[in-house]
């Protein structure tokens, strides 16, 4: 399978993507735990059906020491005992923010409050940005039919 379009071949699209990657790098270097970021990005990518991002964030998580058991259970995190309460709150926030059209009022106050018990305002803001950025990446990759399977950790810097 080949992608429909290589966005990096357009000078304007490539410039936008450089800003996108810079934003992702800034978030990766923040005080929001890397494990949480990878779990969130993996879960949103699973929900959205983005094979490329699912592959990427699984491999990136393994690369930083995440266990296969936890990664395999991300899709069933509610029934799993391997995640901390903070990670569970982040995954719940991710699901509601990713499936925003499914909820009449968007993200419920109860979901937000559970996340706020574990993350300060700075980290909550970063969590919202990680969720937003991965959802945008999922949509771009799905639109161009970016194939999955060949990603190597660190490939984008």
Structure commentary:
- This protein is mostly helical and 157 residues long.
- The protein has helices at residues 11-28, 34-48, 51-63, 68-72, 85-98, 109-116, 121-143.
- Helix 2 (34-48) runs parallel beside helix 5 (85-98) and helix 5 (85-98) packs antiparallel against helix 6 (109-116).
- The protein is globular.
- The model has no long low-confidence stretch (mean pLDDT 94).
Secondary structure layout:
Layout: H1 11-28, H2 34-48, H3 51-63, H4 68-72, H5 85-98, H6 109-116, H7 121-143
Helix pairs in contact: 1-7, 2-3, 2-5, 2-7, 5-6, 5-7
Low-pLDDT segments: none
Main sheet makeup: none
Order of helices and strands: HHHHHHH
Question: What is the overall pLDDT average?
Answer: 94
What best-fitting shape do the alpha-carbon axes yield?
Answer: globular
N- to C-terminal distance: 25 Å
Oligomer: single chain
Fraction of residues in β-strands: under 5%
Assign the structural class, choosing from mainly alpha, mainly beta, alpha/beta, alpha+beta, or little secondary structure: mainly alpha
Helix content: 55-70%
Q: Given the structure, what is the number of helices?
A: 7
Strands, total number: 0
Gyration radius over CA: 15 Å
Pick out its properties.
157 residues, 61% helix, mainly alpha
Summarize the structure.
Helices cover 61% and strands 0% of the residues. It is an all-alpha fold and 157 residues long.
